Amino acid sequence: MNKLMLSLIRHGKTEANEKHLYCGKSDIHLSENGINELNDIKSSIKYPECNNFFSSGAKRANETLEILYPKKLYREINEFWEYDFGDFEMKSYEMLKENKEYINWITDKDGQVSCPNGESKTQYRERIKEAFNNLVEKCYKESISTAVLVCHGGTIGTILEIFYDNSKSFYEHQPSCGRGYTLTLEKKDKGFKIIKIDNI
Questions:
Q1: Which H or E run contains 8?
Q2: What is the CATH number of the domain that holds 183?
Q3: Can the keyword Nuclease be found in this entry's annotation (predicted)?
Q4: pLDDT digits over 132-157, tens only?
Q5: At what angle do helices 153-163 and 121-141 cross, to 10 degrees?
């Protein structure tokens, strides 16, 4: 098996999405609007069919998977959790714009500045890179040809920035809530390559 169809789907909306709050490690549920939107999207588009399902393990990701793929068993891979914003969790730009540590973090171009009690951009990228490599390796090892991973906007954007197109920032790669991409990966002598990407 040389080809793998791996679909990356962003979880539905939460209160944090609706209020434009930083939400990474905070394990919050989907909002009522988020649940309704997922059901609306589900009735209007065809989500990829597959036999293997994965989630970041966050409540919002698990709930999304259970709405889109009811009664399907799935495995949790916690390394795909969203960025850990530390002390900036559940706060907005407006709340933080006068905070010196926040300014240092958002203006950091080298990715070395961590959120207080959280991650740096470099640490986050390395975590997602390793998790994605491990997931693809697991799929090839278990002869999985189709799989779905429900996770987070930052996670999906970072995967595409690292493994597909680094001319765009991870922000530009982020899908809207409840949407995502199906990646076609081809196995190589050393690793793999994303050869095609389709919108969900």
A1: strand 3-10
A2: 3.40.50.1240
A3: no
A4: 999 999 999 999 999 999 999 999 99
A5: 80
